[in-house]
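Usage

Read records sequentially. Each one opens with the input sequence:
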Amino acid sequence: MNSCLRKEMAKRYTGSARKRGRPPQNGLQPPEILFRALEAIHVYHQIRLTGAKHSVAVAETVARLKPRYKISPTTVKRALAEFQPSGANVVFTVTNPNSLENVVLGDAKKIRVGLTLGVGARPIYPRFNASQDVSH
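and closes with the structure output:
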């Protein structure tokens, strides 16, 4: 075996060379991802309240948010799974206050409140084709 080749192989297997692939982020994500997920959850629930099925609500959510965000149906489903898992009784809820209000922070900075994040019961949407419980 060639000595140059042997040295190169030793670098690969001892870890002294640079690691391949994407650098680790250690779970760190930019805040835009959180904003996109929360807005997706809010829009999804608005659509579900009109009686739409899950798949239609996911597609409509993507259509409404596509002009502002890079979003896909998988992103919407992932946000729902992360913030409102199906087995949980208490989940994060996203609501839109009736009136947009300015909030003054400690340094006299004003911010506008658009969506509010809270904790509450998981929303339940009845199936549109559920059988009616009729007692004879």
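Summary fields computed downstream for this record:
- Strands lie at 90-95, 102-104, 110-112, 116-121.
- The CA atoms of residues 35 and 135 lie 47 Å apart.
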